Amino acid sequence: MKKKKIGVYICHCGGNISDYVDVEKVRQSVEGEDIVFIAKTTMFACSDTNQRDMVDDIKANNLDGVIVASCSPKLHQLTFRNVSIRADLNKYTYVHANIREQASWAHSDNKMGATEKAIHLVKAAIAKARYADALETNKIKAKKAVAVIGAGVAGMKAAISLAEKNTEVILIEKEPFVGGRVAQWDSLSTTTETGKNMVKRLYSELTKHDNITILTNSEVIENKGSVGNISLKVKRTPRFIKASACHPDDLKRAIEVCPVEVPDEFNFRLSNRKAIYKNYPSEYPQIPVIDVKNCTRCGECEKVCKAVDFTEKEEILDVEVGSVLMATGFDSYTPEYGEFGYATSDNVITLPQFKRMIDTQFDKLTYNGKQIKNIAYIYCVGSRQTDGENTYCSRNCCTSTIHAAVTAKQKFADINNYHFNRGLRTYGKQEILYADSLRSGDIYLQSYEDGLPTVITEGKKTIVKINDILTNGREIEVEADLVVLVTGMVPRADNTIGSLFKIPKGRDKFYNEVHMKLRPVETVIDGITIAGACQGPKNIAESVNSALSAATKSYSILSKGELETDPLVATIDPEKCTWCGACEAACPFDAILKVEKDGKTIAEINNTVCKGCGMCAPVCDPDAVNLIACSSKEIMSMIDALV
Amino acid sequence: MENPIKNISYDALVIGAGIAGGEAALNLANTGFKVLLVDKELSVGGKMIMLSKVFPTLDCSACITTPKVSEISRHPNITIFTGSEVGEIKKISDHEFTAKVTKHPRYVRVEDCTACQLCEKACPQNVRDQYQFGLIGRKAAFIPFSICSPKAAAIDIDNCTLCGACEKVCPTNCIDFTQEVEVMDLHVKTVVIATGFDMFDAKKMPRYGYGQYKNVITALQMERELAPTRPFNTILRPGDGKVPDKIAYVLCVGSRDASVGNPICSQICCMYSIKQAQLLMGALPMADVTIYYINIRSFGKGFEEFYQQAKGMGVNFVKGKIGRISEKEGGNLLLRYEDINEGKLQEAEHDMVILSTGVLPNKGIDKFFVNETLALDPFSFVGQSDMLASPAKTSIEGVFVAGTATGPMDIPDSILSAGAASSEAISYLIQQA
Amino acid sequence: MAELNKKSAKILVFSTEKISDPAIDMAGLLKLHYPPTVYTISIPCSSGIKPSWILYAYEKGFDGVFIAADGSDCVFGESCTEKTGHLVGKTHNLMKENGIEPARLRMAAICSVCSESFVKQMRTFNEYLLKTLHA
What we know:
The complex is a heterotrimer.
Chain A: E1 6-11, H1 23-31, E2 36-42, H2 48-61, E3 65-70, H3 73-86, E4 95-98, H4 100-104, H5 111-131, E5 138-141, E6 145-149, H6 153-164, E7 168-172, H7 195-208, E8 212-215, E9 218-226, E10 229-236, H8 248-257, E11 261-263, E12 272-274, E13 276-277, E14 289-290, H9 300-304, E15 315-321, E16 323-326, E17 331-332, E18 348-350, H10 351-360, E19 366-367, E20 370-371, E21 374-381, H11 397-411, E22 416-421, H12 431-439, E23 443-446, E24 454-458, E25 461-468, E26 474-480, E27 482-487, E28 489-490, H13 496-501, E29 528-530, H14 540-558, E30 562-565, E31 570-572, H15 582-586, E32 592-597, E33 600-605, E34 625-627, H16 632-642
Parallel strand pairs in A: 1-2, 1-3, 3-4, 6-7, 6-16, 7-8, 16-29, 18-27, 21-22, 21-27, 22-23
Antiparallel strand pairs in A: 5-30, 9-10, 10-15, 11-12, 13-14, 17-28, 19-20, 24-25, 25-26, 31-34, 32-33
Helix pairs in contact in A: 1-5, 2-3, 5-16, 6-7, 6-14, 10-11, 11-12
Chain B: E1 9-15, H1 19-30, E2 35-38, E3 53-54, E4 59-60, H2 61-74, E5 78-81, E6 84-93, E7 96-103, H3 118-122, E8 126-128, E9 137-139, E10 141-142, E11 154-155, H4 165-169, E12 182-193, E13 197-199, E14 216-218, H5 219-226, E15 246-253, H6 269-283, E16 288-293, H7 303-313, E17 316-319, E18 322-327, E19 333-339, E20 344-350, E21 352-357, E22 359-361, H8 365-368, E23 399-401, H9 411-432
Parallel strand pairs in B: 1-2, 1-12, 2-5, 12-23, 14-21, 15-16, 15-21, 16-17
Antiparallel strand pairs in B: 3-4, 6-7, 7-12, 8-9, 10-11, 13-22, 18-19, 19-20
Chain C: H1 2-5, E1 11-16, H2 20-29, E2 38-43, H3 51-60, E3 64-69, H4 79-97, E4 105-109, H5 115-133
Parallel strand pairs in C: 1-2, 1-3, 3-4
Helix pairs in contact in C: 2-5, 3-4
């Protein structure tokens, strides 16, 4: 075999690497390797100029492959594979070495050690490049359909945007109604439109598109396949109400006669609802639902309404899509028992509860039958924790609270607002709202994280105390009729759906994007995009921006109707294989077939089904199985180079 | 693809080739639409390509922009006009606009230039370098900056004496003084506005002494001092070239301040200042860095943790608004401020002061639309006609807005906003097809 | 600079492209230091590691081998944990047969944000290996 000619490029990363790793020494250490034809250092390997130089080098010297030693392959492996393609090389001849995250940065305390490690890592890459041959990608047909999971504003907007792009959409919502969190609000900041109206507007747009299927009361229970061809099973719980026979007055009666009362989660448990219910009159779809978990089947509703139908059955639907867009939203933080008097004091509620109270009450604001005048807001409850897990800022709560406080003051008489905050974060244009609130006489009291306010209950009185840094640390007490805990956004407690799709989470436990700036709506799972607050706290406009971005991403993956998949699959050495069936048993994808070849029973890999996990390799006693690009010869020669 | 051919019809016109415009153009091009991307600067990449590193990951900004820039510049569906300005835009029918684009001559044939820099060396004319925010000088024949795209020289004709020195040394004869202004009439189906933002001019607050005291600089200038392709190769104070060891950041310069006409928060200054403080602590381990702030607004993903990390590294945060700055003999600066913690007026001496200037609208885009009205918001940013449900829509159907043209925002938000604008534009184009 | 002269153990890490690689990268990003003689080979899934590779690493001079396993986060399915456990058991037996102390092979699940736990693992493994092999 002709000896390979390889080019090696070692990146300074503008100092990120070269401040700690002696890149010239790395270059010198590898330039003598037999297959290395060119070894260069470069200020920015990813820059346009260097990319052009690489193409020129490859063409001028007939190189068989290149190696770039730079940042993590997650960032730029794709960039350099494309460089190879432009120089008429097969992209699989490209090998990447990570000497930034795994050398210069990880060992910035030890320059000699970092340099040594970088040398070994580049040598291992050279060892790998020795065997990195041209491979043909597999082409598969992609289903031009997207499952959007979650029908809050992010999911609804993503669905509309995809449908506008002639893509079939299955919109799957766990709850019986669409609209998510925004449906819970009337008044919104920065607009005169109500949350409910926004949901109504989006719903009517959804229904205009024939290529959108809305499945409410439905959950994904199985996920198989991969990008391009994902098979989902969706469990659809019946509403037990026939839409066609639905007469509004009868349904109203049916709700009235239902004897079951359960805490109303839509109203943050401020009130109760029936087992047959609708959260608010104009809710979509406009059919009530019977909550099977709490229904006692007493039959009272059936007596007054023909539409009630207990014979409806749970359905399991098969859904075939090419991509999945996750828009599963967030939970509101629930304070711990006793946290700022939560659950231990009568007058302490959370911000979402308070917002519901403002929306649903008129003239007088009351709580537990008592009129509310003095309201204390305690910010950052469950966010920016110094002693808890939620170290992040929840982004939207400052604005949301001020908006609620201003609204309360406008709507009800004699309201005094006291904001116990840790530094207001009304970023951007939201600052105007803060200025308005100050102008209207709201009082702001501030502390740092080490001097949080305390809530004291004295008989029926609730007092909030703070050492206010804005008045030189003076201890200030406010007797509050109502204490509103400004609870932030937390990741969904129920992560069934996240586990089903194996979506990785970030340090804050929200779903994690591949790269905040390069690939902000993609996950490491090909074909799964994320939108809205499931990726991190966001306000409505920000959620919609991310939903539209994710829709574009899902669309562009599928728009060509065809996908290229990695040919990095398992291979069987027919000489060694004796068919014992161990690989077949180990394969989670049924990609191994038992075949007769030249009079011998052996295993064969179905390349379009194999995902290249390698689970079949270690179980093979005769060592007949190897993964392309991760075979024993490659791994062992890398070990040789690393030691 | 930078291309002088007057292809007179495109699916989309994207105005501004910063990170938002670039992202929007790429999304459109990747879904098969022909895009014309216009920028008035000599390079694509906008403000982001000039930055050092980006918060909160401390990735180098060039590592993120240059591959995108490279993808944009060679995309077969994208035509780029740099050094070009959009003029009159007219809606001529439901799905058609005409746009006048003026391409200013670069006096260099980009396709022949190898960026060898010989012309730079030969040019006798020194001027302040706008791409280094005036920190250093450049020649009248110059390569805008090291990672610019297209990577080619340009002649700054306003400062050129036509001495011909550059022409004589150019090995490829690519300098061409016969180039003329080209005005093109283009037809496009949709327009994406990604004209970005302006920085507040710190000279408008004379009490901070910017432009008067040499060691008072803006954060954008510090950004260049910290960048890998930086002018001095270390951190210096401009007054005397001394390495500073007591550095102050003044936040909210020109933001949250109705007295200078900008009542809103600029959304990025807290974070870029914290980032620079972290980088300074790394570059100058012995230096003290103090940030004077009103509220720290570290609200994005990973931002609060980044702020706490800066505190842990020893960056000093002082809650207080700076009243005025005066210069002492020797160039040090005296900051007078109200210390909120102590509740009294204080003075502090620093040897270098960085003003974290705010974000202002890049004005004028509305004037281009001649027969339709592009509505602006109360702060003169491009107005969002349906801010919550369709944040990229403007008052004109078929015209969308991306990034900081709608208001202050950080890079991740700009990219998402560009994703939204391109999504709407793609839908708009598909629906009419 | 005392760090320079300090010897550290040679550790080979088998890490997975989608799950533990991001954690190890993030450890670098956060400048959480660990011994520079820790080298990573990336593979798709921890249940695809052949025991023969691990034995080869010891033969060539690695002091320790660490499997940064996918655990329950594995993108290829639930069976990963069990299969990785199985191959570790098999390797331990082979190590015993070859007179290699089984404690020189360690495994822990490293999720995509387990940077701190990875670094802690590397530090303690390094200390253990230095104590037992290089004391």
